[in-house]
Amino acid sequence: MKWFWELVRILVEKGFGLSIEGQLGGSIHFFIYDTIKIFILLSMLIFIISYIQSYFPPERTKKVLGGIKGVKGNILGALLGTITPFCSCSSIPIFIGFTSAGLPLGVTFSFLISSPMVDMASFLLLISFFGVKIASAYVFVGLVLAIIGGTIIDKLKMEEYIEDYVWGTKAIDVEVEEMTYKERISFAKCQVTDIVHRVWLYILIGVGIGAAIHNWIPQSIIEKVIGDNNPFSVLLATVIGIPIYADIFGTIPIAEALVAKGVGIGTVLSFMMGVTTLSLPSMVMLSKVIKPKLLSIFISIVTIGIIIVGYVFNAFSYIFI
Question: DSSP character for 68?
């Protein structure tokens, strides 16, 4: 979208009388360009993906997952998580429904990890910002982490640490009705409206933070805190991401600014995964569904996985250059 970048540059320089080389002009250009770009791409992608998702309602997903156990079930659970545009908090009610329906616990946790972390819309949006290599790497490690996390929890036999009321929830089998073409279009439009309504504020905040990082925070400070020279950069990025409540769409502009400042790709991936999978609000919600021991194991598995991913990708960052 170079033409649009140039159009925003003309607006900032001719309309506001500011050079985009300056801090204020650069920040305004970054904010306007990234905000509009994200909303346009997000709306288009969510519409297309939602139309495809209309063929996979939760009832059908339960039936598909219910017949597969073991690692195959974890793989399928993680893959199905990629076609659901849910943030971590929105994924928890689906998790409850799957668990109450009798799906294997490991499979539901693979879904719980992958659903907020990886989806097709975010993958396509990541490509537009960072290219195919980084976008593919993010999706790949997200799926691997979801599969491994679900498999470990399955092997530990943690069913007793699910809150009793979850097991007591009655799962009602509803006959899946095929939607017409017009109904699928209407469903896709509603999904666009709903998702944009839920994420618009986080996108604005994320773009604002990205603009500040890109134009106001000196590169020397960024490098000192989470640069390659700091051996704890990945750990810090993961911990910083946890208190932030946003989905991947809100983290992309921040990640874009960090990459531009020379932060390692592994550190950036760890930050994004920490935000999308381990946000504090979602962990509070999850604590109402599972008991402390299982919650601690879940957080530990995901955190360790994210940190390992960060250091491994930093070590092989030359592949993405």
Answer: -
First to last CA, the chain: 21
Taking only the tens place, the pLDDT of each residue in 251-272 is 888 888 888 888 888 898 888 8
Helix/strand/coil for 247: coil
HSE toward the beta carbon, residue 285, CA cutoff 13 A:
18
pLDDT in tens, 157-185: 888 888 877 765 554 454 556 788 888 89
Structure tokens at 306: 């994210």
Which helix (H) or strand (E) covers residue 164, if one does? helix 164-168
pTM of the entire predicted model? 0.72
CA distance 53 to 111: 15
State the Cα–Cα distance between residues 273 and 303, nearest whole angstrom. 9
Sign of CA dihedral 185, 187, 190, 191: negative
Please say whether the beta carbons of 4 and 37 come within 8 A.
yes
DSSP 319: G
